[in-house]
Amino acid sequence: MVKLVAWTIGPDAPSFYRKDNLVSAVATLNQELEKENPKTTIELDATFESGGAWGDYLQKFQLAAEAKQGPDIVLAGHENFAPWVGPGYVIALDDLLKKHEAKFKDVIPTLWDAMKLRGKTYAVPQDTEARPMYYRKDLLAKMGWSKDRIDGLPEAVKKGDFAMSDLLATAKEAVDKGVVEAGKGWYPRPTKGHDHYMFYYQNGGEMQDKASGKLVVVPAALEKHYGVYATAVQTKVTSPTHIGSDFKIWHETVTAGKVLFYNAGTWTWKEWSTTYKVPENDLWDKVGFTLIPAAQKGAKPTTLSHPLAYMVTSNGKTPELALRLIAHATTPELNSRHSVESAHLAILKTQQDDPTYKKDKFLLATGYMSDFTTFIPNHPKYGAYDEVLFRFLSGVATGQLTPKAATDQAVAELKNQLRDELITK
Length: 425
What we know:
By secondary structure, the chain is an alpha/beta fold. The protein has 20 helices and 13 strands. The chain has helices spanning 17-36, 54-66, 82-85, 94-99, 109-113, 137-142, 147-151, 153-159, 164-176, 198-201, 219-234, 247-255, 267-274, 280-286, 319-329, 332-342, 355-358, 361-366, 382-397, 403-418, and strands at 2-9, 42-49, 73-77, 116-117, 120-121, 124-127, 133-136, 186-187, 215-217, 261-263, 287-290, 308-312, 422-424.
């Protein structure tokens, strides 16, 4: 008997299949092992954290890894393995993946890019998503938009005919006309998180150099990125107290239909119906979703994906069995039930033909967004990079700093902290 331990997290409650798919895979792996060596069977101890904080979960794993008491498999964001590689908490999987490549040939190729650090692969995709811009159809109708114009907004964004400046102008008009209260024209994410970087990428930003693996900052793009938030606050589209506000209140406000535009993840669609009890019919009737509009008309819109991934730790004594368990949890049937339950997009090419996946109207409607996606970097110092950029974004969003001053100070601090690990373009 070989006992494997796996740690997984939502933190959104509908993502429980991150654990349950591994549990389901045990029987399949044991059937396979029965043919190879009847004396070898797998027993799995798997946990799932729902509603917890990412920081606490990551710290728990790090402390356990340091004490050599960690799990065999840990699920985390694709960027989380970067600081774990140096101290050896997780292992490179390339040799094992090559040995079992037939089991992973169905993974969407672009997702492997997010699983690598300096040319080596440290994780297997568990799910992915996009981060749309949501909008209230009923509020646009109150502003005089026709049904055709409302329904055509996603295509207009996709073609570059409706840019971010148009979104902010529309939101300002909604505030000016009293369709929404001041500060409720656009709700970006209220806390630190990857969503904010869509507006950096939108303006030509880069975050990592592929060849060297170093972090990248583009000051001109960063200033424009900060400028999006400054404009929103100055025109009363977004409140100067919005950044730093409570995420639960954010959800309650948008689900009450009080905000015109708001960006969130695809998984949030399911969260609104399960956690916030919004009938799905109401969501379809009143809420639309689109890519993040391009910075200028005619340019390409964007979104951002944050694939979660299974990693094999150095603490485990049977890494190949851990990877084989992950392989049996990575099937169209199992991944599709997770996708449908939690509103995450497909990671396997054949999921598009899976009967469960094909029945989900929302996933089919948002699948195209993967063609426009970006990723955050895999770098051990990404946490420091992220902290600096968000801190100065907060200064802009509260009106304490101009975009230019925030950019100058952020770039100077990044250079000081990251030194040779930063490229400025």
